[in-house]
Amino acid sequence: MKKIVVFTGAGVSAESGIKTFRDSGGLWEEYRIEDVATPTAWLNNPKLVLDFYNARRKQVMEAQPNAAHIALAELAKKYDVQIITQNIDDLHERAGSKKVLHLHGEIMKARSTKNTDLVYNLKTWEIRFGDKCEEESQLRPHIVWFGEAVPNMEKAYLQTAKADVFVVIGTSLNVYPAADLVAAVPENCELYYIDPSPNVKFEGPHFNLIKKTASEGVQELVKKLM
User: Do 4 and 83 touch, CB atoms closer than 8 A?
Assistant: First the structure.
């Protein structure tokens, strides 16, 4: 069975109304990254960090998968589809995708501040200051903050190296180490880049640019592959 690896970024979730770092008027603009998305921020003001991610979690819970998420789930009915995402929401899973690898963490999970193996699924939008794991340490968002290692990168490289088709959707490929994934794509692999305003240049006989939004572009790609 042909293996398709799909690398998704903020452009996929944006169509579901989830704001990103770079949105004008977005949630992130109210805060400096250093104040809410770093280990130092957590040490200095854990309540502020919790409040910030609680707001994002509430937004994710109110959002719905869009046509791009749904089309990718449909593609998995015919092919071996592995999604690697920079997004922390669960919209791929809610659309029906089974094989989803999150590089930057998952907003709908919490974990222990002392034992990284203690990870919990959340059914509510709120982690409160004072909420503790079974080992009595404060719970934190299950998110990879700036300055932290990306634990799933090795898995992502291994999956990418097996791809027959590699698809990039809605990401500028400016965030490292995730952006390095493209370098692991096999030489003869078909490469697709879906973005309405692409700012990355790929070359080679196997490269295909689909200059459309995530929803439009993914539906076009799925029709072609199916």
Answer: no
Structure-token pair, residue 86: 């920079």
Give the pLDDT confidence of 2-58 residue by residue, as tens digits.
999 999 998 999 999 987 665 544 445 578 888 899 999 999 999 999 999 999 999
CB 165 within 8 A of CB 3: yes
- What is d(CA 97, CA 203) in angstroms, rounded to the nearest whole number? 30
Rounded distance, CA 44 to CA 198, Å? 38
- In this predicted model, what pLDDT tens digit does every residue of 145-192 receive, in sequence order? 999 999 999 999 999 999 999 999 988 776 666 678 888 889 889 999
pTM value?
0.91
Q: What is the rounded distance in angstroms from the CA atom of residue 138 to the CA atom of residue 147?
A: 20
104 part of the active site: yes
Q: Could you say which of 92, 102, 104, 142 is catalytic?
A: 104
DSSP state of 194: E
Q: Say how far apart CA 33 and CA 45 lie, in whole Å.
A: 13
